[in-house]
Amino acid sequence: AGQSAATLDPEIATTTGGTLTNSGTVVSTGASVLTGAAITNNASDLIKVTSGELQINGGSVANSGTLEAVGGTLDLESVIVTNSATGLVQVDSGATLDLEIATVTGRDLA
User: Fold this and answer.
1) What is the pLDDT of residue 97?
2) Is the pTM value of this prediction over 0.90?
3) Alpha carbon separation from 36 to 6, 39, 43, 49 (Å, rounded)
4) What residues contact 99, with CB distance under 8 A and at least 6 apart?
5) 3-state secondary structure of 35
6) Which residues of the chain have pLDDT under 70?
């Protein structure tokens, strides 16, 4: 069976460990924490913060899509984000990218 794109909206959530593979859109609108997770953001897909804070602490992010802070804060702590040729970390006007012992490789930040 095929999988279609969907939206996940964690308003106030904490997830520890495991795997998150995004083939759609993840929208964070509250205080959400992903700790020690192996995250894959596929090409043309989006993980975005529209308000509040999304903290990614530990684990890893393989990014071929877009990690975007539209509003609020994208907080990357003790994590390595590996952008492919299509991967992008983008911070819009009025939003915040908080890097704490974080490494972003591959493409530039926008």
Assistant:
1) 97
2) no
3) 23, 9, 22, 19
4) 76
5) strand
6) 1-16
